[in-house]
Design a protein that fits this description.
- The complex is a heterodimer.
- By secondary structure, chain A is an alpha/beta fold.
- Chain A has helices at 40-48, 90-100, 105-118, 134-147, 164-181, 192-198, 216-229, and strands spanning 2-11, 14-24, 29-33, 55-60, 63-64, 75-78, 152-156, 184-189, 202-206, 209-214.
- In chain A, strands 6-7-8-3-9-10 form a six-stranded mixed sheet, sandwiched between helices. In chain A, strands 2-1-4-5 form a four-stranded antiparallel sheet, with helices on one face.
- Chain B has two domains: 1-30; 35-263, MetI-like fold (Orthogonal Bundle), CATH 1.10.3720.
- In chain B, 80% of the residues lie in helices and 0% in strands.
- Chain B has 14 helices and no strands.
- Chain B has helices at 2-28, 32-40, 44-75, 81-93, 96-107, 112-119, 128-152, 157-164, 169-180, 182-197, 201-207, 217-226, 230-254, 256-263.
- Chain B is globular, with a radius of gyration of 22 Å.
- The chains are: A alpha/beta, B mainly alpha.
Chain lengths: 230, 264
């Protein structure tokens, strides 16, 4: 279970996150929807340990992780622009977290092989990221995150730079991976259509505050009303 | 108007290149006979050996100690950072004789540091170790600047990705930061080495000019030229200029592919 308790974040006198509390159940695939500048990436950074909240608590599996370094949290993050290591091959990117934890060679080989097969990337194992397409890079990023065996996987608008045709395929891949691996996920997007395609419980973030939670449909209607009111 | 400006820029570039070429030509156009004679009398090779040994050691020391310093300066924010940055950059702006005097006062056997070093069998005045110290002091900023620039150019999402993939900061430094800073490290090492090789003022102050022991190429050029032995001074200058030329050309060729990939 992932819990944010009254999390606030203040940057240079501005409240970026205001009293955010939310809970994710184990194995749940939830969405965080909101316009650009709402504070979604900041919230993910706090969950991942890349930033500290000004106040409030982060609990994962019941343990207080508020001041725990990112490499010691059971959390990983798929970045908006995949952030693949350009000097490593696809194989080495996926193996990175295992090698960082000094895991045995045969274990690494087995798990990387499994990830390559799951994401359809076997023939690109020895390729470097600079020869891959955007969609392929994002699939490597998914595989790399899942290979880390983190309990919680955060997604920071991973499909925002891809065209709609590619998105549909990757969304299907992601749903399939979640069905198989059952990780707890929080997926950030500003696209209501993407949220609807992924399904799951939706949290809405506007101007640093959580304004509602529910289904993707309810969130979309709420967002539309907010735009009309503006 | 545009053509006139373009012609002016090209003319200035050519003139500057000619200025450098003519000045260095006197070193490179030393006659083969003069060079052979100076090299065969056995006085230049020991000097070349001392210079190469000490400058490479100074550059290696700069690489080992300068890499973590460059990383901290590139990536971390802390109280007093501006002061540390200025201190580490200061040797570039400091006149070499001032640097030499400062080091001399630091490691003089009459001072506490010099006495301690002598006590543990590491005297520095008039020794090769003293040359390494002087060269390291003046050349270190060149390495740090180059590597710091390379580390700064790595997008923050890359080390962040390593952290969320359970890599410790040390693992990320050795397996991500250093490999991605490769060009900066190599060019920093080369600039640092060539600066160390050409160092005169600080080296002469700390280590003097003991033939075969602490006589480096720049010191030999000065002492032989002022003694009237222009052939020997010219041979030493030729060796120094040749090493610098070959290293710079090698560096340009080594990074030519990377530069073309960046343009593409």
């Amino acid at each position: 279970m992932v819990e944010l308790e009254h999390v606030c974040k203040r940057y240079s006198g501005r409240d970026v996150l205001k009293d955010i509390s939310l809970t994710l159940e184990r194995g749940e695939f939830a969405l965080l929807l909101g316009p650009s500048g709402a504070g979604k990436t900041v919230l993910l950074s706090i969950l991942a340990g890349l930033a500290s909240p000004t106040s409030g608590r982060v609990r994962i599996g019941g343990a207080d992780m508020t001041r725990v370094a990112p490499e010691r949290r059971p959390v990983t993050l798929v970045f908006q622009r995949h952030a693949l290591f350009p000097h490593l091959t696809v194989y080495e990117n996926i193996a990175f977290s295992m090698r960082a934890r000094h895991m045995r060679g045969d274990t690494v080989r087995g798990r990387v092989g499994e990830m390559l097969a799951m994401t359809g990337l076997e023939e690109y194992a020895q390729a470097k990221p600079n020869v891959l397409s955007g969609g392929q890079c994002q699939r490597v990023a998914f595989a790399r995150a899942l290979a880390s065996e983190a309990e919680v996987v955060l997604f920071d608008e991973p499909l925002s730079s891809l065209d709609n045709g590619l998105k549909a395929g990757l969304i299907a891949d992601l749903k399939r991976l979640h069905r198989v691996r059952r990780f707890t996920a929080l997926y950030v997007t500003h696209d209501p259509g993407e949220a609807a395609a992924l399904g799951g419980r939706v949290f809405l973030l506007e101007n640093g505050a959580a304004t509602c939670s529910g289904t993707a449909g309810a969130a979309t209607r709420f967002l539309k009303k907010s735009f009309e009111a503006d | 108007m545009n053509n006139g400006f373009r012609v002016l820029c090209v003319a200035i570039t050519v003139l500057l290149s000619l200025f450098v070429a003519v000045a260095l030509g006197n070193v490179f156009l030393i006659s083969a006979e003069t060079l052979r004679s100076a090299l065969s009398d056995g006085t230049v090779w020991p000097v070349l050996k001392v210079s190469l040994q000490t400058s490479l050691l100074a550059a290696l020391l700069a690489m080992v100690l300068g890499s973590p310093a460059a990383y901290v300066l590139a990536r971390k924010r802390f109280f007093g950072k501006a002061v540390i940055e200025t201190l580490l950059d200061l040797p570039v702006a400091l006149p070499p004789m001032v640097a030499g005097l400062a080091l001399l006062l630091l490691v003089s056997p009459t001072g506490p540091t010099g006495r301690m070093l002598a006590g543990i069998g590491l005297p520095l005045i008039f020794t090769k170790s003293g040359i390494v110290l002087a060269q390291f002091f003046v050349a270190l900023p060149f390495y740090i600047r180059s590597v710091r620039s390379a580390v700064t150019s790595i997008p923050p999402s890359i080390p962040a990705a390593a952290a969320v993939l359970r890599a410790t900061e040390a693992y990320t430094f050795f397996h991500v930061i250093l490999p991605l800073s490769r060009e900066g490290i190599i060019s920093g090492f080369v600039m640092c080495w060539t600066r160390a090789l050409g160092e005169f003022g600080a080296t002469a102050m700390v280590a003097g000019c003991i033939p075969g022991v602490t006589e480096t190429l720049p010191v030999a050029i000065y002492t032989r030229a002022t003694a009237g032995d222009l052939a020997s001074a010219g041979a030493a200058a030729f060796c120094l200029a040749l090493v610098s030329f070959v290293t710079l050309v090698g560096l340009r060729l080594a990074f030519k592919d990377a530069a073309e990939r960046r343009k593409a």
